[in-house]
Amino acid sequence: MRFFVILLVLCAAPLAQAQPDQRVLTGTEWRLVSLGPTGAEQDVIPGTNVTLRLGEDGRAGGSTGCNSYGGSYQVRGDTISFSRIVATRRACLDQNANEQEHRFLAALESASRFRLTSNRLTILSDRARSVLNFVNNSAPDPDDRPPRGDRNDPFEILASYYEAINAKDFRRAYRLWESPETSYERFVAGFADTDRVRVLVEPPNRSEGAAGSVYAEITAIVVATTRAGTDRVFAGCYTLRKSNVRESGWRIYRADISTMPPGARISRMLSQGCRNSQ
To answer: Which of 2, 34, 126, 199 is the most buried (most CB within 10 A)?
Structure first.
């Protein structure tokens, strides 16, 4: 039996302090990957390429996905502001892309602060109520990289999943599902009252192949501590799948998890975990 206890503490990464301050953001084309209310961002519309490029001369520009735009910007420490933004007026063929363009430009005009971590840039707008998430357009997207640890070990994938939840990196956790049964917004809302999680797992009950895939079943007990400090216990079976056709690593295929009554014995919860899985 293997035991993972995952308790993470998030610390804000210090921002580089170059002179002038603009240089921490220049020399890179930033590609927008999501935008919207903080904590409930939506991915950019497929097929649209929204970019931002910041020059050392204080000029900003890029593409809205439908039009090109330009303007001025100023950085001081971790604050950022944009002004005199002007865009071309070609209408998008997709009405949703038009709306995305409007939201993007409005967020730039109300920008106040930014965070820079590795190849990611986050711009906070409207008093941090909305956010623009960018990645370095010339670097591999971190969301496309395999999870931490050994992606050929289903235990590591499950550990990565709960590690991401503890880190409040819900987009990363969401991407570890092969075919999520709910929207990203509903997924995030499900953890609104969760402060941290711990998980106890047993070795796979069964690992077998079928039609070009390998499946692993892992019995798990999850203890979710709420923001109020109370614990809720869940137990059941995670099924993970790995394709033998393409090099994609393990992903969470299905979860049969139920709430456990107070005082339930660990041995009983473990014995029932994957007992009825097909």
So the answer is: 199
